[in-house]
Write a structure and sequence with these properties.
Length: 228
């Protein structure tokens, strides 16, 4: 069973859900915008577990090779709980689409080969980028997967990894302040991001996944050793 949320976590999730409802596109806007996106574009997703890290959140990068295609996920986290620790990268056991994730109420089954666990995503941001941008983004993410760098909670965490990957493709996240996004806290990023230079909002652009009962072995936070 999933753990009970604290009062603070319930309050935070309620506010973040209100943010998503206010800023997501309705069907008419969604259709009109998506029709202007070239067919050869790819999707970039920023998935957010807003319950992780004592409600500070966790970010997972999702990449596709075509619009609405199955995504490969990159969940960068640390082994242990020190400020600086060896980095680890988890990925979906089986790539799936954003619609699949929506149908699963945000539950990802991910992990390194032979080491899987489930993690709940509360929300997502959806973008579309040209193939020329996706190639360096994916190359950076794949390199970090093959040889995970050191995790640093302040300087290089799950969110900053995703932001650095996007920058390789010329994509810069924009904050409500009108400036480039500058935060290391995933939940703040979800609230503050209003778009991206070098990428187009896609679909509803801000998605929300209900907080439902966990599947077998489901966890709302990432353990130090996946599956343990």
């Amino acid at each position: 069973m999933s753990r009970l949320l604290t009062r603070r976590e319930r309050r935070e999730l309620k506010r973040e859900h209100a943010d998503q409802e206010r800023e997501s596109y309705d069907l008419a806007d969604e259709t009109q915008r998506d029709e202007q996106i070239p067919d050869d574009y790819c999707n970039v997703y920023l998935l957010f577990n807003l319950e992780a890290a004592v409600a500070e959140g966790h970010t997972v990068l999702g990449l596709t090779d075509k619009l609405n295609g199955p995504m490969t996920t990159y969940s960068f986290y640390r082994h242990g709980n020190k400020l600086r620790a060896p980095g680890l990268m988890a990925q979906l056991e089986h790539p799936e689409t954003l619609d699949d994730l929506d149908q699963a109420s945000g539950w990802l089954i991910q992990g390194n080969p032979g080491n899987y666990w489930n993690e709940h995503m509360n929300a997502a941001l959806s973008f579309a980028v040209p193939p020329a941008a996706m190639r360096p983004i994916k190359a950076y993410a794949d390199k970090a997967t093959a040889n995970p760098p050191e995790y640093d909670l302040v300087k290089y965490n799950c969110l900053t990894f995703a932001m650095d990957a996007l920058k390789k493709g010329g994509v810069t996240l924009e904050a409500i302040s009108g400036r480039d996004l500058h935060t290391i806290i995933p939940k703040d990023a979800f609230e503050d991001i209003i778009g991206a230079e070098g990428a187009e909002p896609y679909g509803k652009w801000k998605y929300w996944f209900p907080n439902t009962e966990a599947p077998k072995n489901g966890l709302t936070t990432i353990p130090d050793i996946p599956g343990k």
